[in-house]
Amino acid sequence: MSDRSVTESKSAESRSTGRRQPVFVLVGGTGDLALRMLWPSLAMLDQDGFLAEDLRLISIAREAITHDAFIERVSAAVTKRSGDALEDGTLKTFTDRLTHLPLDAYDTEWGAKLKAEIGEPENLDIVFFLSTSPSLFKPLCERILEAGLNAAPNRVIIEKPLGRDLATSKVINDSVAVAFDESRVFRIDHYLGKETVQNLIALRFANTVFEPLWNAQSIDHVQITVSETVGTGDRLGYYDEYGALRDMLQNHLLQLLCLLAMEPPAGLSADSLRDEKVKVLKSLKPINASNVLQNTARGQYGPGYAGDEKIAGYEAEKGSPSNTETFVALKAEIANWRWSGTAFYLRTGKCLPTRTTEVVIQFRPVPHALFGTEATPNRLVIRLQPDEDISLTVMNKAPGLSADGQQQLQPLALSLSLINAFNGNGNKPPRRRIAYERLILDALNGNNAAFVRRDEVEAAWAWVDGIAEGWEKAYPKPQIYPAGTNGPTSAYTLLDRDGRVWND
Ligand code: BG6
To answer: 59, 86, 169, 486: most buried, per Cβ within 10 A?
Structure first.
């Protein structure tokens, strides 16, 4: 039987059981994200047995390449990304599911041509992934609507940049809302697909030891750092329009902040979680022109090094002057009962010395100094990248005697390396999954808890807009830092003002 007739017989089977046949339509199927992340994620899900046997994978792009050339390109991308994890036979099974359709979003026959391939919508359960520029969301959603491919249970996945500010984000959200109601719009923040980020929820809410201390009475401040060694590379065109504030802080860092600061949700349903996250975003104290200089640091990498590689600097790479920041640090305050008095310091940047994502929970000092030497306040460090480990610094008595009878103290770390913990029997450590694997699987299963709701995105933009407008008025030029260093000096002044230091 040919591959096509196998698929056809599977869809006939789905019809006879009354079950809709699942179809994943990836618009932008020959694009960079699709080849680097999305097809490899789907191939790994297939290998691990997570995809329904009759799931069809349709690629749509303007590029008219032959079926064979498309399969070859996807196979090369999957092989490159998966490395040793790819097992014999995976590629054949996986690519048998694939079909490429060369279609233009403005072609009025778009829907008809897609239906000619996949069949009538009443028999199908379709997930669209629009991996295109957001400017194409409107025409694409119109095509989907015209063809009647938008009705439930069909759903759509979209990804940032979801606007440059609140106003443009609303336009994008409205263009998608034409075809899909909110419960069927899956907005990706790929940080929410990371195993380690999901573990923050487990750490907070599956343990009793942390929650009684998780408040301003016990926690002095929190640091969230996402540092990258890479520069802007071949994404400079996009990046120059957005900068670190919009590219990273508005989404990934604020999501981490929400997971750390939110109240315990009533359950793990999508809305319980997202309701709590929105409350955090709405409680952020505004930063605007009046306080942006005290509460933020803006930097741009200049000439320097990334490892051994010489970096010319952002403006030199761009070839013209630019006020786009490649580094941002800020002090966020959450005006609610739990957090009033605890500062949250966030920072992210490119061309920094290490690739790290880390959360530091700095506890308050003991209220009364009993010992001769000062007790270092407890500190919980949760490292999410590159390796996941959790360590809690606790004070100990240093072994030995002292002539004056005073006990000497010493801070020591209780530490948990998650790679080692899940590698107990000498087995290979579990494969580090691509964040998109979890997100695509959730979308296929209709579970949107790890996706971002419209009011969340908009609340994040509303807060970030204050900072961006404040910068325009009061802080138009980022401070240059040499590539390969920890960012501009203003990032250190930001904490210094409060008598604190970054955990470098
Ligand atoms: C993306 C940003 O969302 O996240 C990139 O657009 C950034 O600029 C990337 O490099 C970082 O993701 P990760 O998973 O490598 O930490």
So the answer is: 59
Active site residue 252: yes
Average of per-residue pLDDT across 174-180: 98
DSSP code of residue 234: G
Q: What distance in Å separates the CA atoms of residue 491 and residue 486, rounded to the nearest whole number?
A: 9
Find where tokens 């408040």 sit. Answer: 215
CA of 380 to the centre of ligand 1 (A): 25
CB-ligand 1 contact for 159 (6 Å cutoff): no
C-alpha span between 295 and 287 (Å, rounded): 7
pLDDT recorded at residue 10: 54
* Residue from 228, 240, 256, 383 whose mutation best tests the ligand 1 pocket (most atoms within 8 A of CB): 228
SS (H, E, C) 415-470: EEEHHHHCCCCCCCCCCCCCHHHHHHHHHHCCCCCCCECHHHHHHHHHHHHHHHHH
Q: Could you tell me if the CB of 325 is within 6 A of ligand 1?
A: no
Distance in Å, CA 305 to ligand 1 centroid: 20
Is 57 found in the same domain as 129?
yes
pLDDT in tens, 29-79: 999 999 999 999 999 999 999 999 999 999 999 999 999 999 999 999 999
Over residues 437-462, the mean pLDDT reads 97
Pairwise CA distance, residues 392 & 408, whole Å: 20
Same domain, 287 and 402: yes
Q: Is 147 exposed, middle or buried (0-12, 13-18, 19+ CB in 10 A)?
A: middle
pLDDT of res. 426: 57
Nearest CA to ligand 1 atom 13: 191
Instruction: Give me the pLDDT at residue 397, please.
Output: 87
For ligand 1, atom 9, which residue shows the shortest CA distance? 248
Domain carrying residue 441: 192-496
At residue 470, the pLDDT reads 98
Residues 233 and 370 in one domain: yes
CATH number of the domain that 282 lies in? 3.30.360.10
> Does residue 300 form part of some domain?
yes
Among 100, 190, 221, 252, the active-site one is 252
